[in-house]
From TrEMBL:
PROSITE patterns the record matches: COX1, COX1_CUB
Name recorded for this polypeptide: Cytochrome c oxidase subunit I
Pfam families in alphabetical order: COX1
Naturally occurring in which organism (per UniProt): Teichococcus coralli
GO BP annotation list: aerobic respiration; electron transport coupled proton transport; respiratory electron transport chain
Residues that span the membrane, as ranges: 43-64, 84-110, 130-148, 168-195, 207-234, 254-278, 290-310, 322-341, 362-382, 394-420, 432-458, 470-491
Region listing for Disordered, in residue ranges: 541-563
Keywords: Electron transport, Heme, Iron, Membrane, Metal-binding, Respiratory chain, Transmembrane, Transmembrane helix, Transport
GO molecular function, one term: cytochrome-c oxidase activity
Coiled-coil segments on the chain, per record: none
Biased composition (Basic and acidic residues): 543-563
InterPro entries referenced in this protein's UniProt entry, alphabetically: Cyt_c_oxase-like_su1_dom (IPR023616), Cyt_c_oxase-like_su1_sf (IPR036927), Cyt_C_Oxase_1 (IPR000883), Cyt_c_Oxase_su1_BS (IPR023615)
């Protein structure tokens, strides 16, 4: 090991046959996967569960787009259509987007990136996965019994007076998955506070760790409010308590306040981890230290704090006072500032960088483009007059998907491409991966950009039938959805194939910095042997550092220092 690398971290020397000793082989038998407390295995269990829910939610999206291909409602009845978009929204939001990066990449990488042997509470980690799957099965059971037609927001009085009784099972399922998220959040907070490697002080932590830490705080503080609001639905619908019914002294808008007090911070539960993933990728493939590292940290924390203060911009047409609407509008513009800081910092990191366009970098660039467009349209929705005009139209659908799907899903695929060699010890076909990344960007734009035009022209969302003048835009969106589906499915194919035919990866195939690259690929059961010592800050790339895939030398010999 070079003296330069030793000054930064002192990892264990790799054994002669590392492939015979890793987390995939340390425990034998199928049953060991369901009793494991290894955070890396639990991350893979979450990946399998989320893939199943992604397929279910994607199937519902396909049915919606097929119905909207023609103006007449000729594929499903109105009730069936309502149940289908409720299935799509509920599954994709609560069982895919919210846990997508924290429970998969976060679970796998957080201990590795701070030099820990595991998370603080390994058994709690496994319990959260079981609770997550139990909640998912309860939701699917409620949908199989008769379905839910309230939309993923469970608005009152739909959920308390007009929907069928199965809405209570769906609400309880979301309550349970909320407890699963809280368990993960508590685990991550304790891990960051208690298990950092010697020398890993707060401002030496990677930005992904900061993003997961801030996300965990939001989860722990906000999710109990969602739990309370859904349990109040159960109390009114199941036990007759007058909570939301104005005929008995209740307030129907109380649910909206409670729901959006959680659900707008939930937007940042979905997107903050994506910021961390993109930061790790951009700095690696630009071969430069992230521009404004400290400002990036404060931007992450500001987003987490201000996110609790803007829920009212979802309620501009609900009858709240004009003064309240103006305050929420102002705060919604304020929260755009730390989000813009991140885009500017990524741009300045790329400026004069030695950029290479591997698949993870293409996903990252696609994320920046989609998130920027989604963020700019968010400023339109923060303006009271424009929001009133486009409320409950496809403009809102497009904005939401550009941020949540174009952002969170693109970042998930980018992060999976980046850390796949570390997770599996295998390389995938780079050409196919680049093609999938480009296809995902264009497929997404072709699918959702026409919805901005439809929404501004007045096309309401959640309708299975529509005026014929909007058909051309729906046909464009449905055609783009075919490309997008191909972009989502293609990586599943070549990544699976790489497990059997992919070349074995070196410990650091991207010539990246970070503790996770200083251990073997795949990592051993307890990550590091012995534990590393951190002596310098993150992202210290040498301006002449070699780029990715130079595998003729050991990773620590390629490790640069200085920026």
């Amino acid at each position: 090991m070079s003296d330069l690398a030793a000054q930064r971290v002192r990892p264990a020397e790799a054994p002669a046959e590392p492939w015979q000793d890793n987390y995939l082989t340390s425990e034998q038998g199928i049953l060991s996967w369901f009793t494991t407390t290894d955070h890396k295995r639990i991350a893979l269990l979450y990946m399998a569960s989320l893939l199943a829910f992604f397929i279910i939610g994607g199937f519902a999206a396909v049915m919606i787009r097929l119905e909207l291909f023609t103006p007449a409602q000729d594929l499903m009845t109105a009730d069936e259509y309502n149940r289908m978009f409720t299935l799509h929204g509920t599954v994709m939001v609560w069982f895919f987007l919210v846990p997508s990066i924290p429970n998969t990449l976060g679970n796998f990488l957080l201990p590795l990136m701070i030099g820990a042997r595991d998370v603080a509470f390994p058994r709690l980690n496994l319990s959260s996965w079981y609770l997550f799957n139990g909640a998912g099965l309860l939701l699917l059971f409620s949908l199989l019994l008769g379905g839910v037609d309230t939309g993923w927001t469970f608005y009152t009085p739909f959920s308390t007076m007009f929907s069928n009784g199965y809405v209570l099972l769906a609400a309880l399922a979301v309550v349970l998955v909320g407890f699963s998220s809280i368990m993960t959040g508590v685990n991550f907070i304790a891990t960051v506070h208690l298990l950092r490697a010697p020398g890993m002080h707060w401002f030496r932590m990677p930005l992904l760790v900061w993003a997961l830490y801030a996300t965990s705080i939001v989860i722990v503080l906000a999710t109990p409010v969602l739990t309370a609001s859904l349990l109040l639905i159960v109390a009114e619908r199941g036990f007759g308590l007058p909570v939301f019914d104005p005929a008995h002294g209740g307030d129907p808008l109380l649910f909206q306040h409670l729901f959006w007090f959680y659900s707008h911070p939930a937007v940042y539960i979905m997107i903050l981890p994506s910021f961390g993933v993109i930061s790790e990728i951009v700095t690696c493939f630009a071969r430069r230290r992230i521009f404004g590292y400290t400002f990036m940290i404060y931007a992450i924390l500001c987003i987490a704090v201000i996110g609790f203060l803007v829920w009212g911009h979802h309620m501009f047409v609900s009858g709240q006072s004009l003064f309240a609407s103006l305050i929420f509008s102002f705060l919604s513009f304020v929260i755009a500032v730390p989000s813009a800081i991140k885009v500017f910092n990524w741009s300045f990191t790329l400026y004069r960088g030695q950029i290479t366009f591997e698949a993870p970098m293409l996903y990252a660039l696609g994320f920046i483009g989609l998130f920027t467009l989604g963020g700019l349209t968010g400023l339109f929705l923060a303006s009271v007059p424009i929001d009133i005009h486009v409320t409950d139209t496809y403009f809102v659908v497009a904005h939401f998907h550009f941020i949540m799907v174009g952002g969170a899903v693109t970042a998930l695929y980018g992060g999976l491409s980046f850390w796949w060699p570390k997770i599996t010890g295998r390389l995938y076909p780079e050409g196919w991966a680049r093609f999938a990344a480009v296809l995902m960007f264009f497929g997404f734009v072709f699918t959702f950009f026409p919805m901005f035009i439809m929404g501004y022209a007045g096309m309401p969302r959640r309708y299975g039938a529509y005026p014929p003048e909007f058909q051309i835009w729906h046909v464009m969106a449905s055609s783009g959805a075919v490309l997008l589906a191909a972009a989502y499915l293609l990586p599943m194919g070549y990544l699976t194939l790489s497990l059997f035919r992919g070349a074995r990866a070196t410990d650091d195939p991207w010539a990246a910095t970070g503790l996770e690259w200083r251990t073997r690929s795949p990592p051993p059961r307890h990550n590091f042997e012995p534990m590393p010592v951190v002596d310098e800050g993150p992202y210290l790339y040498h301006p002449e550092a070699e780029g990715p895939h130079h595998t003729d030398r050991e990773p620590h010999e390629r490790q640069g220092r200085g920026a």
